[in-house]
Specification:
By secondary structure, the chain is α+β, with helices and mostly antiparallel strands. Helices cover about 15% and strands about 40% of the residues. Strands 3-2-6-9-10-5-4 form a seven-stranded antiparallel β-sheet. The protein has a four-stranded antiparallel β-sheet with strand order 1-11-13-12, covered by helices on one side. Strands 7-8 form a two-stranded antiparallel sheet. Strand 2 and strand 3 form a beta hairpin. The protein starts with 9 loop residues before the first helix and ends with a strand. The protein binds flavin mononucleotide.
C-alpha cells in the first residue's frame, strides 16, 4: 500500500486552514482610559441560540491583559479600505501608543453596550463577555452577541488573512507572516 498521508508542520497546514476572515477586536483599556484595537484571525461563531462567539488572544499581546477584566468588546469587520489600519494595529502594541489616535479611527455610536464600533467598518458586532479560559499560549474569550450593526453604505469586500497559498487572491498588504488580501472582482 502506498503512503498517502505524511506528517506536516503548522506552517504547512496553514495552506489548508487559510484564508480566514480578519476581524478587529476593540477592548477598553481602563489604565489609559482609551480603547485598544487588535486584528484577529483566531475567532469563531460557536452557538446560534444564544448567539455566542469566541476569540483567542495570544498571552504576549497587551490586549490579553485587558481581556482579563473586560466585560464587553466589539468585533469590527474591516473592508479593503481599512487594510493600512489593520496592518498597523496588528504590528504595534497598544501598551504605549494610542492606536485609534494613530490610525485616526472614527468611532461609531454603541448600541447595546458601551464600547463603540468603527465608522468605516462593514459590520460592528457588540459582544458581552461570558467566559474566559486558558488554551496554551492563548486566552479564549467566549461572549454573547448583543447587537450586529451593518453599515448600509459600505459595499467593500472583507479582508482575508491569506496563508502561504496566496494564488487567486488580490494581496493588499504583507508584513512578516501576515498577508492580507481580498477576493478579486470577477
Ligand atoms: C491579520 C492578522 C491576524 C492576527 N490574528 C491574531 C489572533 O488571532 N490572535 C492574536 O492574539 N493575535 C493576532 N494577531 C496579532 C496581533 O494583532 C498583534 O500582535 C497586535 O499588535 C497585538 O496588539 P496589542 O499588543 O495592542 O494587544 C494578528 C495580526 C494580524 C495582522
Amino acid at each position: 500500500m502506498s503512503l498517502v498521508f505524511n506528517n506536516i508542520d503548522r506552517n504547512e497546514i496553514r495552506r489548508v486552514f487559510q484564508p480566514s476572515k480578519v476581524v478587529l477586536a476593540i477592548v477598553f483599556d481602563p489604565q489609559n482610559n482609551r480603547y485598544n484595537i487588535l486584528p484577529l484571525c483566531f475567532h469563531m461563531w460557536c452557538s446560534y441560540s444564544p448567539s455566542l462567539y469566541a476569540i483567542a488572544i495570544h498571552k504576549k499581546n497587551y490586549s490579553s491583559i485587558l481581556f482579563q477584566e473586560a466585560e464587553e468588546f466589539v468585533l469590527a469587520i474591516p473592508g479593503e479600505g481599512m487594510v493600512d489600519e489593520v496592518m498597523f494595529c496588528g504590528t504595534h502594541s497598544g501598551k504605549h501608543i494610542n492606536k485609534s489616535h494613530e490610525c485616526k479611527i472614527e468611532w461609531s455610536e454603541a448600541y447595546k453596550i458601551k464600547t463603540p464600533g468603527i465608522n468605516t467598518a462593514i459590520v460592528n458586532i457588540e459582544i458581552q463577555v461570558k467566559e474566559r479560559s486558558i488554551a496554551g499560549d492563548h486566552q479564549i474569550i467566549l461572549g454573547e452577541i448583543k447587537a450586529m450593526l451593518k453599515n448600509k453604505q459600505n459595499k467593500e469586500r472583507v479582508l482575508l488573512a491569506v496563508g502561504p497559498e496566496s494564488k487567486g487572491y488580490e494581496i493588499l498588504a504583507q508584513h512578516g507572516i501576515h498577508t492580507i488580501g481580498i477576493i478579486p472582482k470577477q
